[in-house]
Amino acid sequence: MSETINGATSARSPWQVTRSVWYAMFMREAISRTMADRLGWFWMVAEPAAFVLIMVAIRSVISGDRLIVGADFIPWMIVGMMGFFMVREGMMRGLGAVDANRALFAYRQVQPVDPVLVRCFLEGMLRTFIFLLFILGGLLLGLDIAPDNAIRAMLVWGSLWCLGLGLGLVVSVLGSLVPEVGKVVRMLSLPLLILSGVIFPLNHLPHDLLEYLMYNPIVHGLETLRLGFFEGYKVVHGTSMTYFWLFTLGVIALGLLLHVRFAQRLKAK
Amino acid sequence: MIEIRNLYKRYHNHHGSDWVLKDVNLSFPRGVSVGLLGRNGAGKSTLLRLIAGMDSPGRGEIERNCRVSWPIGLSSGFQSSMTGRQNVKFVARIHGGGFDVQRIIDFVEAFAEIGKAFDEPIKTYSSGMRSRLNFGLSLAFDFDVYLSDEATSVGDRAFKAKATQAFKDKVGKASLIMVSHSEGILKDLCQAGVYLRRGQAVWYDDINDAIAAYHEETTGQKA
What we know:
Chain A has 269 residues and is mainly alpha-helical. Chain A has helices spanning 14-34, 40-62, 73-100, 113-140, 150-177, 179-195, 207-213, 217-229, 241-268.
């Protein structure tokens, strides 16, 4: 399995090979993600901005009375939405990662797990940058969006990144082996937006219903992220980062196992 | 140099799964170029993929004690939405190009002679352009064994001559394992031959004997 070039006789270690694959793939993905679409950069910022504007417009028309305890509505929603997009995009980017890079499996150095990891990493970097832009923009507009507990906010942000990675790993394998999985995942993304409490606070829902909604790990992450931003924020009852991390570690482990188990089948397809 | 022992391979599909390769034992010596012969579907490309390490055997093992290229051919190895230059850059990087990346790009651009198309997406390429690029790319690295899956079949005359010359220059430094249906090029470049039939492989020390065996099968079926 040794691979060398032009007279260099020493074989590269597996780690060196993997690192050069990640580097090459990162450069490739970064270019196609930001440059391939017309106005790719513009839409990356404009899409969430338009989303916020629409939601704010709807909310101010239907009801202004549902107050969120300890936070203003607009910053509350921006924070939740950014956290949710972090998870969702991690998952969606993973979904197409294997198929989009199928041609590159001709080189034995490239494994199906590589594009998924690289895409999730890249997506996280981009989302972080966009979030910072939004915070900066919000502050300039006079919104109260500066994190009160920045350490907690950053830790939870990283945790959401990991959840997106875990889900991306799982759906990248299942979605490539069973195409229907991809369709279901895409369908789920809209209801998940509402069920995760991005637009409407879950506090107002009856307790019986909430009990089931709290199985969704994204809620736990988003609520804790908001707690990091707004000191006096009252999180939904039952929010637990322990549950969140158990779930996240579970899906990451499952995703990696699936990749080990089905690596050959993903390549051969 | 490349040892294949008790190799079995099959692909699972909905209508059962027959063995594509059944108990293949081969040993490719250093510096000997080998032509793979057999009818369509005999398992030539599968064997090449297995040697390249793209796929793993169902049973048995392959030992590679040398640097082996990817299977150079029409279908594989390029991401169609990226330009030729980006693809070359990518491959140079995964092979640990480092500071050599620019030199490799220049070499491939000069060898492939596809002009401005080098900066166009691969999906706009003709099959001949694609094989020029893939071929040039593989020559930019010093492999011990080059695997060719009909890589030269779609090239025009000038390119065929150039590719043949490039391999003749490499005699002594590198060898070739090639699948081709044009016997002229096999006789030109290969010394030994392997004839695949119903999943079994037979080694011939002389490529002409392998071609003769292949002819015998095909004419035998016509009669």
